Amino acid sequence: MTEHVKLIWGDQTYELPVVTGSEGEKAIDISRLRQMTGMITLDSGFANTGSCKSAITFMDGERGILRYRGYPIEALAEHSSFREVAYLLINGELPNRKQITRFSVLLNDHSLVHEDMRSFFGSFPRASHPMGILSSMVNALKSFYPYLEGEEELNTTVARLISKVRTLAAMSYKIFRGHTVVYPRPDLSYCENFLNMMFDSPVRPYEIDPDVVQALSVFLILHADHEQNCSTSAVRLVGSGRVNLYAAISAGIAALWGPLHGGANQAVIEMLTNIVEKKIPLKDVLARAKDRNDPFRLMGFGHRVYKTYDPRTRIMKKMCDRLLTKLNIHDPLLEVAQALEEIAVKDSYFVDHNLYPNIDFYSGIVLRAIGIPTNMFTVMFAIGRLPGWIAQWKESMDDPEWRLNRPRQIYTGPTQREYVPLDER
């Protein structure tokens, strides 16, 4: 029996059905509200609005839970490769050996980028941010690789996109440093190939370290999907116009660029660097963060959904400690980050406002240890989030109830006015 919520307006009572998710979360279905009452709802920032039904990712912000297709993020980060998680998100199940081999072959077969695309890189100004370049290049893929129809062809398009985005990112790094482009190798795994394309050179061949490969894989897994966040919502919104996959993903990359979403890991590193270089006392940093009249923000703390410790942070912090110890790297930013966390989690202001470290607080330090330049941090986020975007896009395309996204608004501008000719104004 379907549950209902009663809405009373004047002398009228309306019944709205309640939808229950597989984890017990409940939502009021208001899809017929305007038809029934002539009214709409107003929810600034969509903090209380469910935009879709999804079987991909489950989050519980109060309990600090994150699962992909039912699998805890902790188990996937410990036992799976990024390729397996990408397959899981897109196809709904963890692959068997035959399936992951086939998927890996597809990734290798489509890892090369059309040589004509290399000329595009030279058209961007030297100071261009890698995210702007990546968004443009992904959109341009449609011209070189037409979108194909059918399930098998879609699998090819998906593999092509996942593989080529990684290649494009490495190419952009090499070209803008004036170095020779390194091509992908069929004998290397997804993460090994990316690291080799980034750092190999004729002068100094890159030595692949399994621990560095594992750290990159875990980073990508932790970023692979995160429910209906800003960039994922952008992919679904743009995709609802039935645009091609490349255009929808390009929109997601653009949405990820800002400091409040994907750019937060870069902002954390810049903040920590400023603290170290200027030797700012941590008590002053926290005092400024608590002052509402101060524009300073303590980057890497708090989350729109998590009201407790971000489960990904524990994994990333552990990986951070292990990687820096293995590589014998002394990073003063890590010491500052750890000291800030230790003080903040005991501070009543941060506890009362649910301001705990999020994944961005430690992920940048891991990327620094690997050798990734700071301005490419958000690109790394995009590479990790790509399978989630594709899965969300694919799910929306397959949803028989899915419609063109068209939010409403409450108009607050002037009422009708008489037009005044130019000479009379």
From TrEMBL:
Q: Which Pfam families match?
A: Citrate_synt
Query: InterPro entries from the xrefs?
Result: Citrate_synth-like_lrg_a-sub, Citrate_synth-like_sm_a-sub, Citrate_synthase, Citrate_synthase_AS, Citrate_synthase_bac-typ, Citrate_synthase_sf, Citrate_synthase_typ-I
UniProt keyword annotations, A-Z: Transferase, Tricarboxylic acid cycle
Q: What is this protein called?
A: Citrate synthase
Give an example GO molecular function.
citrate synthase activity
UniProt cross-references to Gene3D superfamilies, sorted A to Z: 2.20.28.60, Citrate Synthase, domain 1, Cytochrome P450-Terp, domain 2
Q: PANTHER family from the entry?
A: CITRATE SYNTHASE
Q: List GO BP terms, alphabetically.
A: tricarboxylic acid cycle
- Annotated signal sequence is none
Query: What protein family does this chain belong to?
Result: Belongs to the citrate synthase family.
* Reaction it catalyzes: oxaloacetate + acetyl-CoA + H2O = citrate + CoA + H(+)
Q: Name one GO cellular component term.
A: cytoplasm
List each coiled-coil range: none
Q: In which pathway does it act?
A: Carbohydrate metabolism; tricarboxylic acid cycle; isocitrate from oxaloacetate: step 1/2
